[in-house]
């Protein structure tokens, strides 16, 4: 395994225009649940009487804003001051050194930005950018988490719209185009925390035609052999090694 990791380190060291595709396992390491929170699906069903796909929808927000925001506060924002793992810190270092050109993620917590990354494409938007539909004022995740009941705009008293796309809503076209472009023109594609066959990424990853596809994930999945280099285990430990 160390031989592969040495090789990966060499590829990362000797190349520029590296694009990082960050899947949900990178978020799991911080203890955050994510929007879907698949790993606690049963508890969610038990607590809300609906599954996450039903709750995180535009229709549900309109009809049951109280339940929607309870889910937002307690499931999506289960933690608020998360500690950044090595994956995020390494990404920021690589970006500062001019080697990493973009990060594409479906995470909504702004963790890469918090680590200092600048060029982050958040496909689904961000929990740090909840918006008043009336005046456009933006509210961060802390405001949502600490609101008593349903969070409303301080100026207008109107119920806020979450900063991320709800199920059934279109993904922002500008973000999508940016993501496709970054992946298509990447020199090295560094995929972390997702399998290559995952529903979210499979289609998008096909745009990469280079021969430096690196996959780092917690466990092996079918379809992974498309990667030119791959290694499995604790993401942060691997990242620390390959970016040192
Ligand atoms: Zn407002």
Which key phrases capture this entry?
13% strand; binds zinc ion; 244 residues; alpha/beta
Question: How is the secondary structure organized here?
Answer:
Layout: H1 2-13, E1 18-22, H2 24-28, H3 41-48, H4 52-55, H5 58-63, H6 65-76, H7 86-96, E2 100-105, H8 111-115, E3 120-122, E4 130-131, E5 138-139, H9 141-146, H10 173-184, E6 188-192, H11 202-205, E7 213-217, E8 229-232, H12 235-242
Parallel strand pairs: 1-2, 1-6, 2-3, 6-7, 7-8
Antiparallel strand pairs: 4-5
Bound molecules: zinc ion (ZN).
Zinc ion (ZN) is lined by residues 132, 134-135, 137, 153, 155-156, 158.
Structure description:
The radius of gyration is 19 Å and the shape is elongated. By secondary structure, it is an alpha/beta fold. The two termini are 16 Å apart. Helix content is 38%, strand content 13%. α11 links the parallel β6 and β7 (213-217). The strands form two sheets. The protein has a six-stranded parallel beta sheet with strand order 3-2-1-6-7-8, sandwiched between helices. It has helices at 2-13, 24-28, 41-48, 52-55, 58-63, 65-76, 86-96, 111-115, 141-146, 173-184, 202-205, 235-242; strands spanning 18-22, 100-105, 120-122, 130-131, 138-139, 188-192, 213-217, 229-232. It folds into three domains: 2-31 and 82-126 and 170-242, TPP-binding domain (Rossmann fold, 3-Layer(aba) Sandwich); 40-76, no CATH class; 128-161, no CATH class. The structure holds zinc ion (ZN). Zinc ion binds at residues 132, 134-135, 137, 153, 155-156, 158. The site of zinc ion (ZN) has 8 residues, from loops.
């Amino acid at each position: 395994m160390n031989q592969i990791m040495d090789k990966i380190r060499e590829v990362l060291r000797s190349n520029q225009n590296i694009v990082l595709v960050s899947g949900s396992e990178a978020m799991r390491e911080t203890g955050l649940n994510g929007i879907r929170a698949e790993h606690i699906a049963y508890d969610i069903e038990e607590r809300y009487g609906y599954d996450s796909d039903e709750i995180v929808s535009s229709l549900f927000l309109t009809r049951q804003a109280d339940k929607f925001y309870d889910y937002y506060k307690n499931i999506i924002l289960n933690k608020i001051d998360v500690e950044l793992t090595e994956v995020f810190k390494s990404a920021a270092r690589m970006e500062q050194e001019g080697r990493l050109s973009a990060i594409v993620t479906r995470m909504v917590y702004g963790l890469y930005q918090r680590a200092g990354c600048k060029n982050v494409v958040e496909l689904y938007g961000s929990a740090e950018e909840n918006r008043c539909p009336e005046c456009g004022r933006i509210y961060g995740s802390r405001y949502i988490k600490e609101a008593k009941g349903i969070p409303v705009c301080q100026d207008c008293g109107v119920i806020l719209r979450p900063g991320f796309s709800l199920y059934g809503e279109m993904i922002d076209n500008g973000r999508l185009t940016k993501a496709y472009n970054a992946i298509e023109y990447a020199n090295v594609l560094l995929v972390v925390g997702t399998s290559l066959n995952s529903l979210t990424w499979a289609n998008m990853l096909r745009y990469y035609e280079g021969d430096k596809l690196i996959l780092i994930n917690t466990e092996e999945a079918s379809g992974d052999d498309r990667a030119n280099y791959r290694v499995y285990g604790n993401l942060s430990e691997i990242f620390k090694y390959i970016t040192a």
